[in-house]
Write a structure and sequence with these properties.
Layout (H helix, E strand, L loop, with lengths): L13 E3 L2 E2 L2 E7 L9 E8 L2 H18 L19 E2 L23 E7 L15 E10 L2 E9 L8 E8 L9 E2 L6 E2 L5 E3 L5 E7 L14 E6 L9 E4 L18 H12 L1 H4 L26 E4 L5 E4 L5 E4 L23 E4 L5 E5 L10 E5 L4 E7 L18 E6 L14 E7 L3 E7 L1 H5 L17 H9 L21 H11 L18 H9 L14 H14 L2 H17 L20 E2 L4 H13 L10 H21 L2 E2 L2 E2 L5 E2 L6 E2 L11 H11 L7 H16 L5 E12 L4 E10 L7 E2 L11 E2 L5 E2 L7 H6 L3 E2 L3 H13 L3 H4 L1
Helix pairs in contact: 6-8, 8-9, 8-10, 10-11, 12-13
Amino acid sequence: MERMPLTVPESCPRITAIRSDGASRIRRVSPPGASGPRLGAFRRWRHSGRLLAKMTTMALWLAFAFGSSGSSAHAAEPPNLEEPLVIDAPELAKLNFKVSTGGLPVASGLETYTVCRSDHEHPETAEGLGWTFQHHPDLAAWRGRLYVGWNSCERDEDTWPSRELISSSTDGKTWSKPAEMFPQGVSTPLRMYFFLAPNGRMLVIAGARVSQKKLSEAKKGGIVVRELKEDHSLGDVFTLRPPAENAASQPPPFTNSADAGFVEAGRQLLADQIYLQQQDYGMLLDPAQRQAWEGKGNGKAMCFFERKDGALVGVGKKGWTTLSRDHGQTWSQAVQPASLITGMGKVWGQRTADGRYALIYSPDPKKRWPLAMLTSDDGITFRDPHALHGDLPTRRYEGRAKDPGASYHRGLSKWNNDGSWKDDALWMVYSLNKEEIRVIRAPLAAAVQTTVKKVPLQPISIYEFHDSVHHWRAIRDEGRFIKAEPDQPSYAPSQVREIVSNILLFQRPNGGWPKDYDMTAILTEEQKAAIVESRSRNDSSFDNGNLHSQVDYLARAYTEAGEPAWRDACVRGLDYIFAAQYPNGGFPQRYPKAQDFHAHITFNDGVMIGCMNLLKDAADREPHFAWLDEERSEKARDAVRRGVECILKCQIRVDGKLTGWCQQHDRVTYEARPGRTFELASICPQDSTETVEFLMRFDSPKPEIVQAVEGAVEWLSTVKLSGVRVETVKAPKEEFQRYTADYDRVVVQDAAAPPLWARHYEIGTNHPVFAGRDGVRKYAFAEIERERRTGTPWFGKWPEKLIDEEYPKWRSKLPAAEAK
């Protein structure tokens, strides 16, 4: 039924009501000129559908019967304030903002790629200048490539220095180095940068800059333009629409171009009022062409799409929505649909390649996460929300108006898509925390399903987390932001998705993880909230088997499940490892800004060799890294090469003979160095065993690797201890700073005992050495204090399997010349 013209008295309040999930939010929108607020949000009532319908009818009748001076003419015809779209999604009333997805399922098959990520410290890897504000993105498809344009500022939004950048991709995954869209000083940001003219030309536009003062939307009126040509080059810069001030200083008018097709395309753009209405308040139009935007936030960042019934929908910030049934000639009074709960983030709607519709927005009045996608068959009723990003990193740089979350997302539309991008998935661009530009690809088949089918996953070993688990559960540390509860339960190895959720939750913005937390713990809601609050901490560490274990687990989980968020987290962790490695190939215990012994090349607690094993897996494209891109695989190969060189330089020589390795080595001289007071500079069998096992992974080892293995195994065989064993005996309960013990450990003579190795051997004498927290070297285990006797594993069987099984097997496979 065609909508009838509506005449409403100026003094009459307008009321709309709608049911959403059994809940109604009634909004009162006062007409222009009315006293009092133009928009007031009434409280939310929850009623049955029948009672709500009665109340809605009564509310509308009362408003028009008694809303004015009482003239009967005011109640002659009830209003027809049609809501252009409806959100039917009960899930949105139960969002959990402690997690970045809000508790929504992530769209299955979602892929996320970074176009540009701010990096003030390494500008060459970002946009070239080290600027930290990246925002206002737009997306286009042109001649087989995707294009992204965006605004880049040094620090603050809409503040000089500023420039507009452009990048392109042939696959959507790898993006060209950002280049200036217009010469700096010529342009300002707009909501949109690309226009596919009806004559087939692709134009690139931006606002015309008239000064270096802070920008305001009210003063954005001029437009500069250039052509994105078929060969992907950019044409000359012209003024498409002169600004109100400083017009004489602008580039020449577009009509000066000798290219008639370009001039025609410019005129077609200026004639497309709906396209230009996407800019806030229609400021790129002449005043007479602009809509009358009434209500706070109304008319900002508008998006337009055509419903299945042919009606044109306009939707903008704060959910302001309007409708046209005559192709944009006239528009209905803008309303805020009661079921569309959102804030100052953008709302994007579009028709998708499968003939359906997608609506993407942040479903909260204040937060800009999660970024939710809802789908519709008719462009009116939207259901089935899914999250379009799985992480919410902490803002890394200060700056004005840098809201956390996804901002100003835009997709492909008739104005920026020439149809050459042969992929039916939904592609979108957005700014994350206003310092990273990302694109996402969401397969439509996954987007429309009402529930995500979770494929059962094979269990993944959690052994590599054991050291961190032990420290979190058994060792006290008042500095931890969450502490283990008594008998806190853990996930089983088969609960891969739950463990991955923990790993993602703990990951830091730099890609690392804090040490000594249990990735398998079933966390309480309070603990999860504390983890979120701690995200800004600079506490990533490789200590106690940390970090490489998470990356390895994520790689295996992604290989099984194909969840893009898991891959992205894994890649960020891998990139952290690349960044942390010293140029000489060694790894510190902590990164960045490691100090004291934390800056030494660290073999202790699986740091060096844990990283090296992971990097070799990535370099060799082991099955769980078969998906890794070639650039990172090559970086891993280089990291392994440098790491092996470092390992060989660190191996301790005594009287010219190769022995083993210390827990820490100097990052410049490679000499053995002490760690904590009870960790003396010494030769250490546990770390040496792990190092030899890594070196034996090479199928065709170089002679120097063979010599290193031979020398270490010979030394390990020489220093084994016979005729003694370590007993744990009952002792009075004692509270130490980090743990409680009701036992002690002693060394006893036992001729039948299997061989043991000490944790530390003195360099030059091969005597076992010990130390307490006083750092004094002792040669008898009983001489150190009980707290250290029970707090450190001073003896073990670490090399036993290496010497008896692994080394003979490895040696037997060597060519005869190398085995000599």
